[in-house]
Structure to design on (267 residues):
């Protein structure tokens, strides 16, 4: 599932590709991927200019000139491709937004969606989300105070979007490896030093993920050299050597989530 670095990469790249461009046509291949009728979606979106593209947690928000928004959540397996019709991937397209001869294809939206909402509805949608972990107000002190109120395992807490916005299954493993903390450790067993280390690991791993274009395998457009440059330290590397201590990485399950960690240097 795309997480904060992947969606931030999409936001940045799409801003240069379709920002301030007019949507010339819309095609809906899967009606369940949108939240209103096809006619209403088409009538309201066609001929609208995309004024801006922003990110909140794992969502992208395409703000249209009339003040309405398209809210995208890719969920599990969703991705996008931008290009001409003849260049599109040989995959089923759920939604297509056209910009003249070029198009933004939304692929793999079996669980994901592109909803047409007002700014007020967007605000309501985000009401329960936790803080943005890379924004200036999210200081180490704010993180410490937030963790003092929580119980349970640290892995489960990191991926709870109502606690922290944007971290998912993959990057939670990466963060905990970097902080040298076991994913099944209880929050109230972590001391001040460990929580401080964890905070800085969140900053380091997510910023590195953004700088390297996230881990998505599929390029956004032909010649895309940015997307997918991030290489995992532990996630999905069961049986491989830990790059820090050479111990074999193991896979476990925490709250029904596949979890990867080093049993030696994560304590």
């Amino acid at each position: 599932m795309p997480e904060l670095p992947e969606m931030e990469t999409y936001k940045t790249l799409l801003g240069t590709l379709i920002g301030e461009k007019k949507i010339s046509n819309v095609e809906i291949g899967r009606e369940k991927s949108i939240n209103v009728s096809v006619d209403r979606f088409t009538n309201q979106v066609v001929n609208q200019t995309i004024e801006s593209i922003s990110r909140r947690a794992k969502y992208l928000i395409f703000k249209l000139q009339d003040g309405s928004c398209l809210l995208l959540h890719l969920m599990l397996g969703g991705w996008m491709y931008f290009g001409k019709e003849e260049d599109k991937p040989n995959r089923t397209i759920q939604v297509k937004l056209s910009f003249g001869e070029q198009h933004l294809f939304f692929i793999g939206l079996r669980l994901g969606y592109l909803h047409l909402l007002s700014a007020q509805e967007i605000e309501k949608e985000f009401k329960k989300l936790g803080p943005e972990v890379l924004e200036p107000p999210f200081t180490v002190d704010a993180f410490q105070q937030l963790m003092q109120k929580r119980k349970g395992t640290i892995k489960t807490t990191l991926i709870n979007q109502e606690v922290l916005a944007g971290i998912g299954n993959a990057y939670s493993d990466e963060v905990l490896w970097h902080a040298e903390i076991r994913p099944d450790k209880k929050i109230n067993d972590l001391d001040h030093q460990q929580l401080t280390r964890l905070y800085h690991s969140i900053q380091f791993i997510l910023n590195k993920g953004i700088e390297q274009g996230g881990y998505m395998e599929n390029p956004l457009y032909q010649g895309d050299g940015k997307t997918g440059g991030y290489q995992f330290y532990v996630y999905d590397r069961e049986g491989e050597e830990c790059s820090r201590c050479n111990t074999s990485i193991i896979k476990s399950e925490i709250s029904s989530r596949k979890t990867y960690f080093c049993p030696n240097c994560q304590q």
Notes: Helices lie at 4-18, 38-45, 119-125, 140-148, 154-158, 169-179, 192-211. The two ends are 27 Å apart (CA to CA). The beta strands are 25-28, 50-56, 59-64, 69-73, 79-84, 93-99, 102-107, 113-117, 250-254, 257-261.
